[in-house]
TrEMBL record:
Keywords, comma-separated and alphabetical: Isomerase
Catalytic function, reaction form: dTDP-4-dehydro-6-deoxy-alpha-D-glucose = dTDP-4-dehydro-beta-L-rhamnose
Function: Catalyzes the epimerization of the C3' and C5'positions of dTDP-6-deoxy-D-xylo-4-hexulose, forming dTDP-6-deoxy-L-lyxo-4-hexulose.
Cross-referenced SUPFAM superfamilies: RmlC-like cupins
Active-site residues, Swiss-Prot/TrEMBL: 62, 132
Record GO biological process: dTDP-rhamnose biosynthetic process; polysaccharide biosynthetic process
Cellular component, GO, one term: cytosol
PANTHER family recorded: DTDP-6-DEOXY-D-GLUCOSE-3,5 EPIMERASE, THYMIDINE DIPHOSPHO-4-KETO-RHAMNOSE 3,5-EPIMERASE
Organism of provenance: Roseovarius indicus
Pathway: Carbohydrate biosynthesis; dTDP-L-rhamnose biosynthesis
Name assigned to this protein: dTDP-4-dehydrorhamnose 3,5-epimerase
UniProt family annotation: Belongs to the dTDP-4-dehydrorhamnose 3,5-epimerase family.
EC number: 5.1.3.13
Domain of life: Bacteria
Length: 189
């Protein structure tokens, strides 16, 4: 498995090995021991799977606040998407900074996003399916969001923000400056 650190500490791009043969390929999409070897000690308790029919669908930027904060291991089961993590840990030297990576069925890449980060994605192909493991259960009372097109964050989604396919919740999400993050950077004094 290839492991590539990003400029946001803890956010890691993983590419599991694919064993190709005349039938197609086989890949271990998740292996706890290999993640631990990559420095990721995560206990996953829930798998999520969603389908987004239209190109330019944006889901995010979401988080769950403590005590049900979620780390996520994200991959693309079909199609192609641009997956983004944003650091919202107060005191972090990279607070408000984002990283993005194209995940597709073709490239087999995965993104690990620890607790304390917003997560969102924009689809780049029709009928795109995202599949991701979470380190805590769904807790709607802890559900939170920040606007995907917040100019202070400045994510280049590669889609026309005005034409993005959004949920009502995402269309009404607050800006980062109007939001009090429940996360504190562990490196803070
Ligand atoms: C997240 C979640 C949702 N639901 C139900 C609640 C709604 O009836 C329906 C759609 O939920 P929502 O509109 O929040 O789904 P997304 O917009 O895809 O939200 C997700 O998108 C971003 C990318 C994430 O990382 C989060 O996992 C999550 O916030 O599924 C559940 O039953 N369990 C769950 O874990």
């Amino acid at each position: 498995m290839q492991v590539k650190q990003t400029e946001l500490g803890g956010v890691v791009v993983l590419t599991p090995q694919r064993h190709g043969d005349a039938r197609g390929f086989f890949s271990e999409s998740w292996n706890k021991r290999r993640l631990a070897e990559a420095g990721i000690e995560a206990e996953f308790v829930q798998d999520n799977h969603s389908l987004s029919a239209k190109v330019g669908t944006v889901r995010g930027l979401h988080f769950q606040s403590p005590p049900h904060a979620q780390g996520k291991l994200v991959r693309c089961g079909r199609g192609c998407l641009f997956d983004v993590a944003v650091d919202i840990r107060k005191g972090s030297p990279t607070f408000g900074r984002w990283v993005g990576v194209e995940l597709s069925f073709e490239n087999g890449k995965q993104l690990y996003i620890p607790e304390g980060f917003l997560h969102g994605f924009a689809t780049r192909a029709p009928d795109t399916e995202i599949i991701y493991k979470c380190t805590d259960y769904y807790a709607p009372e802890c559900d939170g969001a920040v606007r995907f097109d917040d100019p202070e964050i400045g994510i280049d989604w590669g889609v026309d923000a005005g034409a993005a396919v959004l949920s009502e919740k995402d269309a009404k999400a607050p800006l980062l400056k109007d939001f009090d993050s429940p996360f504190v950077w562990e490196g803070a004094a």
